[in-house]
Amino acid sequence: MPDVIAEFLGDGECAVEFEEERMKLVSSRVAEPEHVIPYHLFLAGILSCVTMNAGRALEKAGIDAEVTAETTGKKDWDRLAVTIEITIRVKLKDDTDSDEVRKIVEKGADRCILSRTLGSAIVSKEVVVEREN
């Protein structure tokens, strides 16, 4: 059984199925602001993978922190490619050394199979460490 099945519906629309779910996507050429386009899923997949791996690395190290992340993708229409910038934010709940946390997060985030596959498409990955007040 394939991981994902896609069906072109015509008029710039496509349906994708995975597991028991079915989702309708539209082309960015016809999308309204409330629509999900393949580009959103692409960025969401990468970002969730990086965030989960970074958070899991902190958990394994016994560090209590809140981990969030954001991404910006830039479409390069000349090359038909996307470049991606990722910022991972870590809010520490204790006095753990910030540099140690940054190293653990970077190492964990680098274990994401999606970002490793994309390699040079990820042009920057920044880790911001803050302390909870």
Question: Could you walk me through the main structural features you see in this protein, from its secondary elements to its overall organization?
Answer:
With 133 residues, the protein is α+β, with helices and mostly antiparallel strands. The protein has helices at 38-60, 98-109, 113-118; strands at 5-10, 13-18, 21-26, 65-76, 81-92, 122-131. The strands form 2 sheets. The protein has a 3-stranded antiparallel beta sheet with strand order 1-2-3, with no helix packed on it. Strands 4-5-6 form a 3-stranded mixed beta sheet, covered by helices on one side. The radius of gyration is 18 Å and the shape is elongated. The model has no long low-confidence stretch (mean pLDDT 90).
CA gyration radius, whole angstroms: 18 Å
**What does the largest sheet look like?**
3 strands, antiparallel
Give the % helix. 25-40%
Q: Number of helical runs? A: 3
Distance between the termini: 49 Å
Provide the residue-averaged pLDDT: 90
Q: Proportion of β residues?
A: 35-45%
In order across it, which strands form the biggest sheet? 1-2-3
Structural class: alpha+beta
Q: Which of globular, elongated, flat, extended, rod-shaped describes the shape?
A: elongated
Order of helices and strands: EEEHEEHHE
Low-confidence stretches: none
